[in-house]
Amino acid sequence: MSRTLNTTEPTLLTLQEAADAVGCHYQTLYKRVRSGELPALVAGGSYRISRADLDAWLLERDAAKGAVPERAERDWPRQIETLLASLITGDARAARKQLDRLTAGGVTVDELCDHLLAPTLARIGELWHNNDLSIADEHRASRIVETLLDRATAARPKSGPRIGSVVVATALGDRHSIAAQMVAAGLQAQGFSVHYLGANLPIEEIVNMAKREHVNMVALSCCVAERGGLTAAIDALNAAGFPVLVGGNGIGRDEALALGAARYGGSIAEAQKLACELVRSGV
Ligand code: B12
């Protein structure tokens, strides 16, 4: 059944965009809209489908087919190979379709990060390390992952009161922004108000933002061996009264806690759990 356009509606897709996201032909969706099975709005004489309606329709369709999207979509080794191929060839569109499909199948942001994006980036890192990929290949792949994360975050706005607020960054000397972006995406999906500052931040910038936004905590990601920026940031944040949640493949639990981190997490799922714990305990 078609309705009239309501301008407050969230992200709207054209029929072609929706068909691309689902991986089916334009006509297939057109027929579903015409039959009233898939809700659509009319804007400027053509149909628009909200992402939420599309996701709900996909879930219903899979359930009706008796499909087991859970198992098929969580075949992570296969998913990693598929994404790796898209990242290596720079096929952003295929990567986007793969993630849209997973998201529509109910895969959560933390699962995407922990089971797909981070392991695929680790593979890119290995290939880069062995000179099987150039710096340009790695940069192109990284950029695609950034856009995928933006998209996954935008697709899951959580309404209602915020659990708490957090500044997310990497300290001076660490340019690996993607890990911090994953933390930001995971905490936002969890219901936190997130102030994501990106990478390589001077210490006073992180502290000032934490103070200005009266956040509950600061989450710092670390992907490098260098410790100067991270150590100084944790010291300054602790002195200013902010608990620091630390994680990332450049540092382990014992070292992070010894440096003064309130908690250490090894995944985005853990970041979500620990951030909630920090708010509850009022550290
Ligand atoms: C992409 C990339 C880059 C890009 C970053 C682009 C960007 N915008 O982020 C660029 C080109 C800038 C880069 C630069 C360098 N890189 Co680099 N890079 C990578 C690569 C391929 C992916 C990084 C990434 O995003 N990983 C994905 C993240 C999300 O994975 P993760 O850290 O494991 O995160 C998971 C958990 O740890 C946890 N987590 C992460 N953060 C946090 C935070 C909190 C609070 C919590 C709770 C949990 C948590 O959740 C995540 C999801 O499961 C890695 C390979 C790899 N194995 O990761 C190398 C890697 C990190 N880089 C490495 C190196 C050596 C460098 C350079 C020194 C190379 C050089 N010679 O110039 C420079 C360093 C520059 C600097 N000063 O920062 C090494 C680091 C080794 C080390 N520990 O010191 C790695 C591991 C590659 C390797 N095997 O040698 N790099």
Describe this structure as you would to a colleague.
This protein folds into 3 domains: 66 residues, Multidrug-efflux Transporter Regulator, Chain: A, Domain 2 (Orthogonal Bundle), CATH 1.10.1660; 84 residues, Methionine synthase domain (Methyltransferase, Methionine Synthase (B12-binding Domains), Chain A, domain 1), CATH 1.10.1240; 117 residues, Cobalamin-binding domain (Rossmann fold, 3-Layer(aba) Sandwich). Helix 1 crosses helix 2, helix 5 packs across helix 7 and helix 10 runs parallel beside helix 11. The strands form 2 sheets. It has a 5-stranded parallel sheet with strand order 6-5-7-8-9, with helices on both faces. The protein has a 4-stranded mixed sheet with strand order 1-3-4-2. The chain is globular, with a radius of gyration of 21 Å. By secondary structure, it is an alpha/beta fold. A hairpin with a 2-residue loop joins strand 3 and strand 4. The longest helix is centred in the middle third of the chain and has 21 residues. Helices cover 57% and strands 13% of the residues. The chain binds cobalamin (B12). The site of cobalamin (B12) has 37 residues, from helix 7, helix 8, helix 9, strand 7 and strand 8.
